[in-house]
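hey m, so remember when u said the tokens were messed up on ur end? i reran from scratch. heres the input so u can diff it against urs
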Amino acid sequence: MSRRLLVPLLALLAVPVLLVQAAGAADVVFPPGLRVGLQPPGDFTVSSRLPGFEDTGRNAVITILDLPARAYDDLARSAFADDQKGIANLKRESFPFENGIGVLITGTANEGGGPVHKWFLLAQSLGGEVKDLTTLVQVQVPEAALSAYSDAAIRKALTSVTFRPTPVKEQLGLLPFQLNELAGFRVMQVLPAGGVILTEGPTDDITTQPYLIVAVGPGAPQDASERGRFANDLLATAPLANLRVQLSEPQRISGGPGYEIRAQAVGPRGDPVSLVQWVRFGGSGFLRIIGVAGKDDWDAMFTRFRAVRDGVEPK
């Protein structure tokens, strides 16, 4: 992790304006799709451009990163080290909040021609209903806005930080496409960049059971003659060994231009797998669907993969 307090990560997710309140905590607001919420102080409202809250009139921002639990140690060693370049009056302390105890860093930086006061709360879920969660909450308040957002007011808001279980339906609603057919698969994870992982089996370990990934991406070629190379390059990024293409051809997918590749490979555990990748082209972007299953289950799984593909509808 960068020692510059993860500024590039703050643009990970743009979300539409939507207020979601926690049951039993009427003042806690969860930005759409996030497992982390708080009681926004003053005139802060859910942001439409970043994961968190904004008071646009005062240029004050609260950003919330919803991260895997394993990110905690990396952040504690790097972004939460005692010496932070560009941060004056640095203070590091233990900080109790609604769901546990975190680490809080406070300080001041010169940005945009004036001082900006900063608070960084690093916290981790400690069990219970919410698991595998690290959050980094960053608050930025310009000097001119301190009369509205004092240190006490910000600390009170950070004390209200609350975790909730993954809001899967809410996250699915934020995707740029709709899944009209799951074909017996379950949603394992919704990806922040605009995708979803489906699987069949008792665990979330996709190295041991069939899975399907549906995702969108930018930069699709406009020239039809380049689409085959583009699709093959995409497939080459799959974390599989000894990839052997058996079929590679253009085809119409849901009435639009597409490309299908079928292949065999060796999975992460050394077992033989079969896979299919469909790429549907549209405008300057593309929709990618890749399904992977054991060779013995392939015929049945391929039929179900195709059913999911045919039920994907762009919004």
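this time it looks ok to me. The longest strand covers residues 241-253. if urs says something different then somethings off w ur setup not the seq
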